[in-house]
Amino acid sequence: METLEVINKRKSIRAYKNKQISEDELNTIIGVANKAPNAGLFQVTVIQNSEFLKEINDKTKEFMLNSEGFMRERALIPGYEPLYGAPTLIVISAPDGPFTQINVSAAATTMILAATDLNVGTCYVVSPIPILTQFKDKLNIPEGFVPISGILIGYEDECSIPSPEREIPDNINFIG
Ligand SMILES: Cc1cc2nc3c(=O)[nH]c(=O)nc-3n(C[C@H](O)[C@H](O)[C@H](O)COP(=O)(O)O)c2cc1C
User: Fold this and answer.
1) Phi/psi of residue 121, nearest 5 degrees
2) CB 91 within 8 A of CB 139
3) CA 157, CA 131: separation in Å to the nearest integer?
4) Which end of the chain, N or C, is less packed with Cβ atoms under 10 Å?
């Protein structure tokens, strides 16, 4: 796929087939994390253990139901599961620092675009982060690192969960 086609085709996938992505696909996706623009440390953790994924999903749903506003509303949608049945969750962790969020977002976006190029579905997720923070010891991440972002990865399935409406804002200006 051409790069611009990949960028325009990418969208958040909120239903996944019960089939793991191939090792080659996974290696290609995680292999580009360190090609992103970067100004600091981060760690990429791959979770494919179905029992652990279910535990993260269920605890995240419970957390969302106990919160208020958008998170709770989403969790109340019939059939809603925060990990959407994805067979792979990538967690990006980093130490606290001025550019932490930027480094993690750059790495995540680069991996997401690589996955899109392979026709592999993704969804950038922060909803499991509070639970992943509780499970920090199970993630085997370096001392001082904390989970910042998640990426769900898998083959797209038919989806009954509505995606939030995306309007293209008028947010580009030119200085003459
Ligand atoms: C920082 C960030 C956090 C997000 N967290 C979630 C999430 O927890 N769950 C989810 O379903 N989507 C999440 N998304 C995906 C956005 O909802 C999605 O990117 C946005 O609605 C635009 O839709 P699109 O990605 O299909 O273009 C997140 C996106 C970003 C950038």
Assistant:
1) -80, 150
2) yes
3) 25
4) C
Q: Ligand 1 pocket, 125 CB below 6 A?
A: yes
pLDDT at position 166 is 86
Determine which residue's CA is closest to atom 7 belonging to ligand 1.
125
9 close to ligand 1 (CB < 6 Angstrom): no
Question: Per the structure block, which two tokens stand in for 164?
Answer: 């939030």
Half-sphere exposure of 128 toward its Cβ, with a 13 Å CA cutoff?
30
Express each pLDDT in 15-45 by its tens digit.
999 999 999 999 999 999 999 999 999 999 9
DSSP bridge pairs for 115: none
Token representation of residue 29: 């996706």
Residue 115 Cα to ligand 1 middle (Å): 16
pLDDT (0 to 100) of residue 96: 95
In short, whether 12's Cβ falls inside 6 Å of ligand 1 is yes
Which amino acid would we find at residue 73? E
Which residue is associated with the tokens 């029992």? Answer: 51
CA 125 to centroid of ligand 1, rounded, Å: 6
Domains, the chain, with CATH or none? 3-48+86-154 (3.40.109.10)
Say if residues 133 and 66 touch (Cβ distance below 8 Å).
Answer: no
